[in-house]
Amino acid sequence: MVIEAPRPPKLSLGDLVQGFLGDIGSEDFLEGMEFIDLDLAEADATQATFLDCRWANVNFGYADVPVDLTGARFSGTEITDCRADTWTMFRGNLLHTEISGTRIGAGVVYDSVWEKVRFTNCRISYLNLRGSKLTDVEFRDCKIDEIDLDRAKVSRVAFTGSSVGVFQCEGATLGNVDIRGLEPHRISGVHSLSGATIDDTQLMLFAELFASELGITVE
Questions:
Q1: Which SUPFAM superfamilies does the record match to this protein (predicted)?
Q2: Average pLDDT in the 91-108 region?
């Protein structure tokens, strides 16, 4: 069986206008802007749209005062060397987006739609993608402590060169999901792994887990 790899995002960032904190507001539509060295703690960007923008060295808020990106939409956007103790963007959309060198504590991004998204060299403690739809998403050279894909619809997703500590997928629908090389110490939802690809080594590592899930006793 041939594994279909994620299709890469396509960005076309030309001359960008410098953006400031005061430009960002609820339901705003911002296009062709560059946000650098900003602290967005407590900013309200609910339902905002960011089209063909660049974010660099931006703090998306602290655990107790995060920027509110509920329902926000990022398209054709580059996010580099940023930080978010708590990334609050549930029911949001990422389309043709590149995120690199970014540190995320808790990603509260459930019920979202991600399409053609690539994370590179990112450090993520917890990523809550419950009930989300992911298509053509790649985590490349990332370290993720826990990812929650419960009830998510996931297609053409890969974890190239990445590590994941806890992999949750209860009730998920997977298709062309490449988890080869991952060695999570806990998997929740083994029965939902249909549509995922693992390697020979993982098959041996997960044998006891699979047997337990199927009610098989190994002596």
A1: Pentapeptide repeat-like (SSF141571)
A2: 97
